[in-house]
Design a protein that fits this description.
Chains A, B: Its EC number is 6.1.1.15. The structure is a homodimer. By secondary structure, chain A is an alpha+beta fold. Chain A contains eleven helices and 21 strands. Chain A has two domains: 203 residues, Bira Bifunctional Protein, Domain 2 (BirA Bifunctional Protein, domain 2); 84 residues, Anticodon-binding domain (Rossmann fold). In chain A, 33% of the residues lie in helices and 28% in strands. In chain A, helix 2 crosses helix 6. At the A-B interface, strand 2, helix 2, strand 3, strand 4 and helix 3 of A face strand 2, helix 2, strand 3, strand 4 and helix 3 of B.
Chain lengths: 386, 386
């Protein structure tokens, strides 16, 4: 098979990159540092997204959507925030292209220069707090618990599929509270949600921690993280939750009338997890044969491969399998029957191992006679006849 | 109540804008032509998205994700395509900001100029077909049926909330086929999916049509649309499906080995529907009192308002309603009990009429005695005691 993987002990980093590409999760695009998330990878991300979204809604958060582009002036209102992001900003300066006078080239139309440059959001605190000023007047409007699913751009110099890309998909929660204590409680609650998600849904053990002053999010007073341990012994940041104090409320003048009738600035948090989780998933569970997907994240939970020498045998297997498919699907199992005759069973076995399908059933003529199947587990690589 | 709406017959366009803002669906942001979709509006969009996504998957499509930014050179590979979009492109020219030498201002770092400008996708045909070249070799790889949920930017001069905004959310399907006939069939199938969705899910009658040559999508051979009739007698385009012929395959050199062993260019379609559907929804169903939401799209399907003069009465109503809530929620009804004492019942009635909640129950002390409630329908504005 041509999809031979580099072994982890040979070159862990090369193994990772090859696996992401060969398992059809993602690939590099023609745009520097930006990836294409292929259907197999995107289906895993959709499952993560659905579960996280459910958890956010259960904890009282609502989704909204804020603009992709942020005026430069907003961005510089919070000093440490702009310091942290200025070096990695994609800047929109013009809004039109035109054909050159000789009709041969497409160029930027210099007449369509923006008065103020716009930044593609590297994160959305500034544009969101600019709205919150309009949304928050009184303690009755608090807490304000909003989440956004979005794409962001950070112009990274060294990129790696999923782990560090110039564009990534993520969710960013942005909340506003009456008191410091309530905001800190929210920050820790969301760190807890991330830890639960990682451990119970991704089967990925994590350590809850917080960042030193120099590593904190730009604009935060405290940054809590969950860190997952990768097979190469390194820790990977898999979600962060920031206590922002009153920094953004002061920068964007978001005041509220307190229960005592006074004016005060609101207290803020933000928290995010991204497609980087896909990289963490790969590095936590996979082996030299390919991905290993936890059943709750697998686009295909079970694959069935027929073993046959002729059409007659295949027909008999098809009849048997069609019954199995109906029953399995009615139980909510995501099952694929790969009866393509253009590939041999051995090739298919390797393919689904590479893609991390949790369970594989092989079924041949002898199985039909004995009313058995061969069941193989991807995680332990064990087989049994049942 | 301060949220008084302009009447439709007075000024339809003003009525529309006011309603979108007052019903808390969306508002303008500080960025020219870009809106903030507020939680109430976003919850409606999420329901649309979930249903459309289900319909796309049922018809065999898979989701993927392609980069936000497109090199200028890709964009100009298909001549009529670039002609159609050049005038409304947001152009990224730099990737870094810096502080001026005197430390007082944040400016674009001229040293961080991109060699080739990047365009924020106004649509993704070019970047997607650049990937398809790698994904498609043989007829066995076809049809390729991909959809993407994404944000796009088109620098519109005159914008209106939902109907025409510089950034909007949408889905764009991009498919590749062996034959012209199959591609045309796909184009019509997706026009049909949009029509089904509009009529059966949004309760919005539409007419299927196609565009004249001058109105076609830039790069398409044929553009099919669904058009919905608004209350002011105007038609609104609510979804388009394009037969692209071999234009993009030729521009991006996407050839495949046919069943007969020859090389040929693949046949393409693309189709999209956007947050403009939200505008269509407002204009189809609403009246001078506010939104009217079809039950399947309503974030709140039923609201319950207590009518009381003192705390004792409210307590008794609460006990009764808590039982009702449990039963209604267990049946999957999205129900809200608004027992806030900071607002009077009349204010609440107007508020939920404005927001288009399909059903309202009012319950007072006499209802407790008689074991009745007052049920009001939003669409017909009729009330009955049940």
């Amino acid at each position: 098979m041509s999809k031979k993987l580099t072994k982890r002990e040979e070159d862990y980093s090369k193994w990772y990159n090859e696996l992401v590409v060969k398992a059809d999760m993602a690939e590099s695009s023609g745009v520097r540092g930006m990836m294409v998330i292929k259907p197999y990878g995107y289906a895993i991300w959709e499952k993560m997204q659905a579960e996280l979204d459910r958890m956010f809604k259960e904890t009282g958060h609502e989704n909204a959507y804020f603009p992709l582009l942020i005026p430069k002036s907003y961005f510089s209102k919070e000093a440490s925030h702009v310091d942290g992001f200025a070096k990695e900003c994609a800047v929109v300066t013009h809004y039109r292209l035109k054909t050159t006078d000789d009709g041969k080239k497409i160029v930027v139309d210099e007449k369509a220069k923006l008065e103020e440059e716009l930044i593609i959001r590297p994160t959305s605190e500034t544009i969101i707090w600019d709205s919150y000023r309009k949304w928050i007047q009184s303690y009755r409007d608090l807490p304000l618990l909003i989440n956004q699913w979005a794409n962001v751009v950070r112009w990274e110099m060294r990129t790696r599929l999923f782990l560090r890309t110039a564009e990534f998909l993520w969710q960013e929660g942005h909340t506003a509270h009456e008191t410091k204590e309530e905001a800190i409680e929210e920050t820790k609650k969301m760190q807890g949600v991330y830890a639960d998600f990682a451990e119970n849904f991704m089967a990925m053990p994590v350590v809850k921690g917080y960042k030193s002053e120099s590593e904190r999010f730009a604009g935060a007073l405290e940054t809590y993280t969950i860190e997952a341990l990768m097979q190469d012994g390194k820790a990977l940041q898999a979600g962060t939750s920031h206590f922002l104090g009153q920094n953004f409320a002061k920068a964007f003048d978001v005041k509220f009338t307190t229960r005592k009738g006074k004016q005060d600035y609101v207290w803020a948090t933000s928290w995010g997890a991204s497609t980087r989780l896909m990289g963490a998933l790969v590095m936590t569970h996979s082996d030299d044969k390919g991905l290993v997907l936890p059943p709750r994240l697998a686009p295909i939970q079970l694959v069935i491969v027929p073993i046959h020498r002729n059409d007659e045998q295949l027909d008999a297997i098809n009849t048997k399998v069609d019954k199995m498919l109906k029953e399995l699907r009615s139980r909510g199992v995501s099952v694929k029957y790969d009866k393509r005759t253009t590939y041999k069973p051995g090739w298919k076995f390797a393919e689904y191992e590479l893609k991390g399908v949790p369970l594989r059933i092989a079924i041949g003529p002898r199985d039909l006679e004995n009313n058995t199947v061969e069941l193989a587990r991807r995680d332990t690589l064990t087989k049994e006849i049942i």
